[in-house]
Amino acid sequence: MAEETLKTAAAASEAPVAAAEVAVIPEAEKAEATVVCEKDGPPEPEAAVEEPVKVVEEEKEKITESASFKEESNVAGELPDPQKKALDELKQLVQEALNKHEFTAPPAPVKEEKPAEEKAAKAVEEEGKACDETAAKEESTPEPETVVVESKEEKAVPPTAETSEPAAECKEEEKSTPAPPAPAAEVPEPVKEVTEVVEKVETCVDEDGAKKIEAIQETIVAVATSSEPSKTEEAEQVAPPETATEDTPAAPPPPPEEVSIWGIPLLADERSDVVLLKFLRARDFKVKEAFSMLKSVVAWRKEFGIESLLEEDLGTEQEKVVYMHGVDKEGHPVCYNAYGEYQNKELYNATFSDEEKRTKFLRWRIQFLEKSIRKLDFSPDGICTIVQVNDLKNSPGPFKRELRQATNQALQLLQDNYPEFVARQVFINVPWWYLAFYKMINPFFTQRTKSKFVFAGPSKTAETLFKYIAPELVPVQYGGLSREGEQEFTSSDTVTEEIIKPATKHTIEFPAPVTCTFVWEARVVGYEVTYGAEYVPAAEDGYTVIIQKSRKITATADEPVICGSFKCGEPGKVVLTFDNQTSKKKKVLYRSKTKVSSD
User: Fold this and answer.
1) CA 529 – CA 401 distance, rounded (Å)
2) CA 432 to chain centre
3) FRET partner for 84 with CA separation of 20 to 30 A, picked from 59, 136, 365, 513?
4) Which residues form the GOLD domain (predicted)?
5) Cα–Cα nearest to 309, from 385, 413, 422
6) Which is nearest to 456 in space by CA: 445, 443, 466?
């Protein structure tokens, strides 16, 4: 919720990035203009400059004249074909991920395989080095007795040959030496087999040449024989799971995992389509990007512990700062953010003075948002977005370092994990410097984002809120009639609005039947008027009863809402008088009802 409020402040530092996302001049129009120029021939320099300028001016007119944001339909059958296709593709990706348990599968087993392979390779290398060392020791102390070997291959080698012939014969033996692995399988110790092969080679070569060839053969055979035990060890380690699988060969595949977000199970019913459409709209209906965002949100919610967070008690200090109150004229819940409350130094220090307190505030903000979202209706025809009202009166501003750190952190989390939950952003009591700042960064926002923003200065706050929220649901501090505690009127009692022209008296009459108690309440937006009430009987010889003497209503009055009642004993009418002596028009809000007396 606070994310849209802080976007204007964050945009100043991220202006270069945001600028790339806003296309003031459509690329298609640029391409069409260049193609036409190439076909017609070489354009004149002045004509080439005038065409983009016209396009820019037309685009600016479109932006300034664009209507306010209107929510798209969440009914799958009413979506345009490209959006419907994107939704189907995203649902297919989600189903595949659920079947493979990609949302909750731990990545740990995959990472553990690499160290095991590295250990096995190191073990093979160490065994090979050990074999090389033992063979080298045997080379340094050759014994004449090792010439006798009980092998058939020794008889085939002639001992009285020239130095060139033994070399050739030794090469043949090098090719034929890998053949005796069959008897090697019977020998339990591979190192003995290596020494025997070396002895065979010694009988057929001279001293200098034999030593060189022996070293080569020892390394080759040692690696081959040392790798065999590692393979057998790996086979022994893998053997238990194989036997386990053989015990249950017909085990069925695991069922698809169940993943819920904001209390809505994915792909369980049509409410899931509404959730997926939020991710698609947040990523301009780019399916892969929307799917990646969905997976990251599910992972973040698990890491942050959202379900357990809902049960935590994080205090009530922030209830006056952020609170839900009523709905707008379209049924969206309205969230009010009164940042002026942080002018209270005790509250400010208790919220932002250190990292621990800022973390608690962040968790409270996420908890508040989660509870608000759980109350939304995610059916295709339901209301699943919220209206934000941001009161900037007496706001500390972006110059408080602690506040800036907390808001930036909250902004990042809310932007990444709560897409498309804001229907409209209304900024009230906006100071002049904020409007000037917004005009500077306005070009860097997308048209969709800008269409959600509404700004109103202190004198236009109530009037602006009444455009979107009924006066009976607007809090009294913002010009409405909604108050806490037990009141004579409820939100179901509608309010009537009338305009008081400048320098005129405006009267409102209510008929009063016999034997009843007449009750009313009224409020003047803009104050600075004189108010009075009287009862006028229907009989010509009756006397007018003054219910309320004329008094001036000011902005500093303790009771901004005028309340009155009168017990009628005869037919007549109650007349309310408002005298506006200023040069500006005023708006009066009022409602009334009668209580039948039992007397």
Assistant:
1) 43
2) 32
3) 59
4) 492-594
5) 413
6) 466
Which residues lie below 8 Å from residue 190, measured CB to CB, with a gap of 6+?
A: 131, 184, 225, 226, 228, 229
* Positive/negative CA dihedral, 457, 462, 468, 469: positive
Query: How many angstroms separate the CA atoms of 93 and 413, rounded?
Result: 25
**Looking at the chain, how many residues does it have?**
599
Query: Could you read off the pLDDT of 166-217 as tens digits, one per residue?
Result: 444 434 444 444 444 444 444 444 444 444 444 444 444 444 444 444 444 4
Query: Which long-range contacts (C-beta less than 8 Å, at least 24 apart) are formed by 448-453?
Result: 448/69, 449/7, 450/63, 451/66, 451/67, 451/68, 451/69, 452/4, 452/68, 452/69, 452/422, 452/423, 452/424, 452/425, 453/425, 453/427
Q: Which helix (H) or strand (E) holds 505?
A: strand 504-512
From residue 406, alpha-carbon distances to 353, 358, 441, 583 in Å are 10, 6, 22, 45
Answer yes or no: are the C-beta atoms of 201 and 210 closer than 8 Å: yes
Helix axis angle for 271-282 and 287-304, nearest 10°, is 110
Say whether pLDDT at 226 is over 60.
no
d(CA 27, CA 58): 14
CA dihedral 400, 402, 407, 413 (to 10 degrees): 160
- The span from the first CA to the last CA of the chain, in angstroms, equals 53
Cβ proximity of 217 and 198 under 8 Å: yes
Which of the 8 DSSP states describes residue 259? Answer: -
Distance of CA 492 to the CA centre of its chain: 36
Contact 282, 420 (CB under 8 A): yes
Q: How far is 180 from 190, CA to CA, in rounded Å? A: 12
pTM of the model: 0.65
Q: Which of 454, 383, 446 is nearest to 424 (CA)?
A: 454
Average pLDDT of the chain is 73
Q: Band the pLDDT of 123: cuts 50, 70, 90.
A: low
